Amino acid sequence: MDRAANHPCVYSHALPFEENLPHACPSRRQTRMNPTPSPITKTHWKRGFWSLMGTQFQGAFSDNLLKQLVIFIVMAQQWPKEKLDRLVSDAGMYFAVPFLLFSMFGGWMADRFSKGRVMMWVKVLEIAIMTFALVALAMQDLNLQLVSICLMGAQSALFAASKYGSLPELVPDEKLSWANGIIEMLTFLAAILGTLAAGLMANAFPGSSPWPGIILLVLSIAGWWASTGITRVRPASPDKPLRLNFLGELWREFRWMKGDRDLWRANLGNTGFFFIAVLVQMNLLLYAQQILKVDPLENSVLQVALAIGMAVGSMLAGKLSGDHIEYGLIPVGAFLMATMGLVMGMEGVSKTIFTVCLSLLGIGGGFFIVPIAAVLQHQPPADRKGAVQGAASWLSWVGISIAAVLQGELSLRLHWTPGQIFWFCAACAACTGVYVTLTRPAALPALLKRWTTRRNAECRMPNVE
């Protein structure tokens, strides 16, 4: 991974992404990897790691439950198609805008304080927000419900940098790709269950019942309790000043990251992934209602199929990566997403085939994002991980915001059908796959060679009776 053009271990454009960190170029790794604020032992890291996994699972579940529940409440209204399309787009924007405003502040907090302590106090904030959401849901006030989505977006923005920045501090280096596979898998699994729960609640509590809000409040308390088990490591940069001009701070981080070619590309890949993923998810809501004519629960099942694919793809990517970052999975994931998006956009596709393609698209997404997430965590020095995660989060939410706006523009202004929007997503994924293949031509062949070698070695092993 390149930081300076004249470093003896820098790869040229024509050489693989592959000779994959962390086992390649030990001298390079020593200069790039600052000591973590607290040493990781081989045996005592699991409690803190799994506490983080539990905290993240609850947060992702609650985020999706609240957001999808409000969207289903909107879609249940007998409003014109144009108004429904706009409100679905607006709901995505309400969750995205706080990330654009607070991601860098969250990155500063992750560097300035212990990441575990930051996450615990942010979960306290979530309890207050879910109390507000309880009132909004019970009153059936759409404006207050949208505000609660916005507040949860702010809470998630403050949480994100500490969450991802803490992984290299909680797990040994050789477990980083595995840990990313686990956290992405659990995140998408939480999205599965949260989306499904939203559909169930939309059917079970159609009126002004307080139960959805009560459930969300109880879950937030459980998430806070889980966060108390996250390992408290020393702050990475306790003297880091707070700069209120977050745009200036962003610009400084972007300039620094652009000096590391592959770190910068990972940021752009992360942004592109979330742009495509959110556009697919938002378009899926409208496709299910307008083309498939399904109710909220069946709509949730389709969202679940997508999230199951993402979870499986993330788990497989973590397993296939082993003890290094497997860059060859990125073009595989991109081309799989492109192929499935193309099929999903065709007219007359049966619901069964559509659902299978949706799951395969999700698997491609898991292959794509896990190596990128590992690069974003592995590359920066310890005292800069929080800031880099904040900047990466900001860029990803730029992609999400553009997707939310574009969904409305393509549907309302250009009158594209949901199928045509799936084709647009497929084209974006294909372009990404082509770019990675052209700029790192040896990454995919190296991946196939490693898999073939491993398979042949397994076949040569004698059977033990």
CATH architectural name: Up-down Bundle
The main pleated sheet reads as:
none
> What's the CATH topology label?
Growth Hormone, Chain: A
Quick one: CATH superfamily? MFS general substrate transporter like domains
**Average of the residue pLDDT scores:** 79
Order of secondary-structure elements: HHHHHHHHHHHHHHH
Count of helical regions: 15
Residue share in β-strands: under 5%
Estimated helix fraction: over 70%
Q: Which stretches of 5+ consecutive residues score pLDDT under 50?
A: 1-39
**What Rg is obtained from the alpha carbons, in whole angstroms?**
22 Å
Q: In the CATH hierarchy, what is the class?
A: Mainly Alpha
Overall tally of domains: 1
Task: Indicate the overall shape.
Answer: globular
Distance between the termini: 45 Å
Q: From the helix content, strand content and strand pairing, which structural class follows?
A: mainly alpha
Q: How many strands in all?
A: 0
